[in-house]
Amino acid sequence: MLTNVPTWTTDRVELLKSHFEAGLTCREIAASIGVSRNAVIGKLARLQLTRGPARAEPRPTKTARERSRKSVPRLQYQILQAVYENAQPLQEEPIVSERRCSLLELSNERCRWPISTPGAEDFCFCGNTPVEGMPYCSGHTRLAYRPGTRHRVSRAR
After folding, report:
1. Closest CA to 7 of 42, 35, 45
2. Separation between Cα atoms, residue 90 and residue 115, nearest integer Å
3. What is the pLDDT of residue 124?
4. Model's pTM, two decimal places?
């Protein structure tokens, strides 16, 4: 049978305060006392013990070069834009997968578009050369990342 033992005994609170004043981190205090880091943070907040600002000096501002770096989503958007601009209109013909491969043969140099149903005898992956930075060949990239096709519905007033 479990008894209801309080986490924060008088001794633990005193130990917490002395470790805090000594400058230990919450993780170090938690390991020393035998409680979780979140328990230490919560108790420090309830005791209204704060260390003040973590840094005396302001954070360095980003340089123009650092601000101009493109994020991964932006880069992927540009890749997709290039695929759509250079692509032929989507046709009803299936995409020819000339280099079909199994899961064991799949690599970053092969299109990862699944063909057939997983578990079926004829299941495989496209295997064609993918668009740089994308997991699929150009044909399957156009299928996977279709541009928005929202239609406006006009309402009669």
Report:
1. 35
2. 19
3. 92
4. 0.40
Q: How many Cβ atoms from other residues are within 10 Å of residue 72's Cβ?
A: 8
Q: What are phi and psi of 51, to 5 degrees?
A: -95, -10
- Taken as a whole, the chain contains a residue count of 157
User: Is the Cβ–Cβ distance between 106 and 47 less than 8 Å?
Assistant: no
Q: Nearest 5°: CA angle at 139, between 75 and 78?
A: 15
pLDDT, tens digit (0-9, with 9 covering 90-100), for 42-72: 999 999 998 876 655 666 776 656 655 555 5
Q: How far apart are CA 133 and CA 81, in angstroms?
A: 13
Token representation of residue 108: 């970053």
pLDDT digits (tens, 9 = 90+) for 136-153: 888 888 788 766 655 444
Residue 115 phi, psi (nearest 5): -120, 130
pLDDT (mean) for 98-117: 90
b/e per residue 22-33 (b: at least 16 CB within 10 A): eebebeebbeeb
Show the tokens assigned to 41.
Answer: 């943070």
